[in-house]
Write a structure and sequence with these properties.
By secondary structure, this protein is α+β, with helices and mostly antiparallel strands. Helix content is about 20%, strand content about 40%.
């Protein structure tokens, strides 16, 4: 394997040492899938991405995403963080719009003057609903701590998640995955990740607080999950959680594990299709060469 240049970023972070860590490798077309997986396992972040070339194909940049355990077709913070590297290091800010060619398809990303990147996710698919007692048991919660005005449902914008509405921040902080019950649950479901949320936040300017558990992918708790929050945005709009036909909110995540993160969620419905955009900032904290 030849030497590879790489960057380490904090994504969905307002400053360094917050948000979700990401390693991005450039010019990776000549390394095998097994080598990519070994590198992702060595880095051991929730995801590592590989930009295959600095040149575009089919009007986009070819990118592959790996967790420590396997390749995934889509993930939010890797999409936004990788786009940040392409925008700043490859294109050198000559355009504020670009496209990533991922396994799930083409994902457009744009950049606003305030420094936020925005990715447009594919329309959400709403899957199976689950009883409150099942997820309460998995999450070490009481059924009464789940907000049963809204369903527990599997939702996907490329990577599926259980969306679990909780009543308050106390319940969110209390949530703890019972691993044996978790793996038994996901054995027969499309979704492997669990997103819990509540309408209270650590910071008064934010509207919801989120936690995401993805032990299936080798990440017990994720500090910032763009794919999961995209699913949440579609869910909140579908069920008119805030009583409106459009969504424009601030979602916080990662406080319980010391990596405070901020994700901006927008959604609207046109002709029966829910359009979702997730925004956030990325900060480069290191760069180097992988030997």
């Amino acid at each position: 394997m030849s030497k590879l240049s790489y960057y380490i970023l904090d994504v969905f972070a307002e400053s360094k040492f917050a948000g979700n860590q990401l390693a991005v490798f450039r010019r990776a077309a000549n390394i095998s899938s097994d080598e990519m997986q070994n590198i992702a396992r060595e880095i051991n972040f929730s995801e590592t991405t590989f930009i295959l070339a600095d040149e575009q194909t089919e009007a986009g940049f070819d990118v592959r995403i790996f967790t420590p355990k396997e390749e995934v077709p889509f993930a939010g913070h890797p999409t936004l963080g990788t786009a940040h590297i392409i925008h700043n290091e490859i294109l050198q800010r000559k355009t504020d719009h670009l496209v990533l060619n991922l396994k799930i398809g083409q994902i457009p990303v744009s950049f606003s003057p305030d420094g936020y990147g925005w990715m447009k996710q594919v329309p959400p698919v709403f899957g199976q609903q689950h009883p409150a007692n099942t997820l309460a048991d998995v999450l070490n919660l009481e059924v009464a701590e789940i907000d049963q005005r809204f369903p527990i449902q599997e939702v996907s914008t490329g990577l599926p998640f259980f969306i679990v509405p909780l009543k308050n921040l106390a319940a969110l902080k209390k949530a703890r995955v019972e691993r044996e019950k978790y793996f038994k649950l996901i054995n027969n479901t499309v979704a492997k990740g669990i997103l819990v949320f509540c309408p209270e936040a650590h910071q008064p300017q934010n509207q919801v607080s989120v936690r995401v558990f993805v032990d299936y992918y080798g990440v017990p708790e994720d500090p910032a999950t763009g794919s999961g929050n995209g699913c949440l945005a579609g869910y909140l709009l579908k069920y008119r959680y805030f009583g409106k036909d459009t969504l424009d909110i601030r979602s916080e995540q990662g406080y319980e594990i010391g990596r405070p993160s901020l994700l901006l969620l927008r959604a609207e419905q046109n002709d029966g299709i829910i359009n979702i955009s997730v925004g956030g900032k990325s900060v480069i904290v290191a760069q180097g060469e992988f030997l």
